C-alpha cells in the first residue's frame, strides 16, 4: 500500500490515488462530528460494524469530498447556463454506491445521506435503492429466473434508466417502485418519491454494470460520482453468514417475513443454508457481475476483515 504523497517511479501507473487509512483519517481534522452514537447505531445494518471513530475518520471526510464535488458541479451548471444565456437548469447530483451483498453498502449509503445533508451546500439528500427496480417475484417466476434474483437480468433496467433520466432532466417529481425486504417483493402501488433534491444517492449491486449493448445507456452514465465498496471475498462470505444468523433472530422471526421458514433452524442448519445461498447465488453474482465493475468507480473503499476501511482509491481528475 502506498499513500497519495508517494512518488516512486518504480510503481505502476494508475488512474487512482491510493490513500492509506491514517492519511485519509487526517483529512477529518477540523471537521465537526455531526452524528451521535445513537444515530450511528440506528443507521447501522444488521451484521455491520460501524463506530463513531469509523464515521469520523472515514465517512465524514468522504461526505465532505462528495459535497465539494456536488457544489462544484452546481457552479459549473450555473456557469454553463449563463454562457448559454438561459435560466439555470442544474439538476440533482447523483451518487452511485455499488458492491457485494453483505459488504455494507446499504449502511454506507444511509450514512452518507445523513452526513451530506448536514453540509450547507447539500441540505436535501434522497436515497433510492435498486431493489425497487427488481422485477416482481411473479415476473421472475414467469421468466424462470427466481433463483437469479440479484443478477443483472432480474432488474427492470429500462425502468431504472427512465427514473434516473427524469432525475437528471430536472423533473419536479420522480417516483420509484418500493421494495419490501419483509415480503421479499415489490409492493404494488407503493412508491419512493424524489422531489428534486440537491443529491440523490442510488445504491445497488449492479449500478456500475456496462450497458448490455454498445449503443445502450449505462446506469452509471447518469451518475456524477460513483463509489465501490470492496473487500476480500472470504471476508464478505463470513459477513453474509453472520448476517443470516442475525436475521434468523430478528426479521426472519416475524411471521409475516418471507424468510420465516428459516427462523427455527439450528445454528448448524442456518450456516449450511446461508453457505448454500452464498455459493450458489451470491458469490457467482459477485465474481461474474459485481467485482468486474470495480474499476468503473470514481472512488473505491477497501475494507478489512473487521469492516473498517483500510484504504481509499480516488480516481485522478
Question: What's the short story on this structure?
Answer:
With 317 residues, the protein is an alpha/beta fold. The protein is 37% helix and 18% strand.
Please specify the SSE layout and strand pairing.
Blueprint (H helix, E strand, L loop, with lengths): L15 E5 H6 L10 H7 L8 H32 L9 E7 L5 H12 L8 E5 L7 H7 L13 H12 L5 E7 L4 E10 L4 E5 L21 E6 L2 H17 L17 H24 L8 E5 L5 E7 L2
Parallel strand pairs: 2-6, 2-7, 3-6, 7-8
Antiparallel strand pairs: 1-9, 4-5, 8-9
Helix pairs in contact: 3-4, 7-8
Mean pLDDT: 92
Oligomer: single chain
Overall shape: globular
Count of individual beta strands: 9
Largest sheet: 7 strands, mixed
Query: Which structural category fits the helices and strands?
Result: alpha/beta
Write out the strand line-up for the largest beta sheet, numbering strands in chain order: 1-9-8-7-2-6-3
H/E element sequence: EHHHEHEHHEEEEHHEE
Distance between the termini: 21 Å
Taking all Cα atoms into account, the compactness measure Rg is 20 Å
**What percent of residues are in strands?**
15-25%
Helix content: 25-40%
Low-pLDDT sequence parts: 1-7
- Per DSSP, the total helix count is 8
Folded structure, characterized:
The protein has 317 residues and is α/β, with parallel strands linked by helices. The protein is built from eight helices and nine strands. The strands form two sheets. The protein has a seven-stranded mixed sheet with strand order 1-9-8-7-2-6-3. The chain has a two-stranded antiparallel sheet with strand order 4-5. Helix 7 (233-249) packs across helix 8. The chain is globular and about 65 Å long. Residues 1-7 have low confidence and may be disordered.
Amino acid at each position: 500500500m502506498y499513500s497519495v504523497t508517494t512518488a516512486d517511479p518504480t510503481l505502476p501507473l494508475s488512474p487512482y490515488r491510493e490513500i492509506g487509512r491514517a492519511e485519509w483519517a487526517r483529512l477529518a481534522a477540523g471537521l465537526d462530528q455531526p452524528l451521535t452514537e445513537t444515530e450511528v447505531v440506528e443507521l447501522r445494518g444488521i451484521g455491520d460494524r460501524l463506530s463513531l471513530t469509523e464515521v469520523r475518520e472515514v465517512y465524514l471526510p468522504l461526505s465532505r469530498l462528495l459535497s465539494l464535488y456536488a457544489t462544484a458541479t452546481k457552479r459549473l451548471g450555473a456557469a454553463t447556463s449563463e454562457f448559454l444565456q438561459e435560466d439555470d437548469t442544474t439538476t440533482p447530483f447523483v451518487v452511485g454506491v455499488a458492491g457485494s451483498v453483505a459488504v455494507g453498502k446499504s449502511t454506507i449509503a444511509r450514512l452518507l445521506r445523513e452526513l451530506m445533508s448536514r453540509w450547507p451546500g447539500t441540505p436535501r439528500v434522497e436515497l433510492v435503492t435498486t431493489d425497487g427496480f427488481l422485477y416482481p417475484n411473479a415476473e421472475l417466476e414467469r421468466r424462470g429466473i427466481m433463483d437469479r434474483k440479484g443478477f443483472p437480468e432480474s432488474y427492470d433496467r429500462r425502468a431504472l434508466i427512465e427514473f434516473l433520466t427524469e432525475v437528471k432532466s430536472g423533473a419536479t417529481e420522480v417516483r420509484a417502485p418500493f421494495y419490501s425486504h419483509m415480503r421479499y417483493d415489490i409492493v404494488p402501488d407503493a412508491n419512493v418519491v424524489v422531489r428534486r433534491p440537491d443529491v440523490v444517492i442510488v445504491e445497488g449491486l449492479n449500478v456500475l454494470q456496462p450497458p448490455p449493448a454498445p449503443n445502450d445507456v449505462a446506469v452509471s452514465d447518469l451518475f456524477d460520482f460513483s463509489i465501490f465498496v470492496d473487500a476480500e471475498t472470504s471476508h464478505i462470505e463470513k459477513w453474509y453468514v453472520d448476517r443470516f444468523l442475525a436475521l434468523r433472530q430478528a426479521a426472519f422471526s416475524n411471521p409475516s417475513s418471507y424468510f420465516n421458514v428459516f427462523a427455527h433452524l439450528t445454528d448448524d442448519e442456518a450456516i449450511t443454508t446461508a453457505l448454500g445461498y452464498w455459493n450458489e447465488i451470491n458469490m457467482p453474482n459477485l465474481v461474474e457481475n459485481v467485482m468486474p465493475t470495480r474499476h468503473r468507480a470514481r472512488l473505491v473503499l477497501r475494507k478489512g476483515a473487521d469492516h473498517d476501511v483500510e484504504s481509499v482509491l480516488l480516481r485522478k481528475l
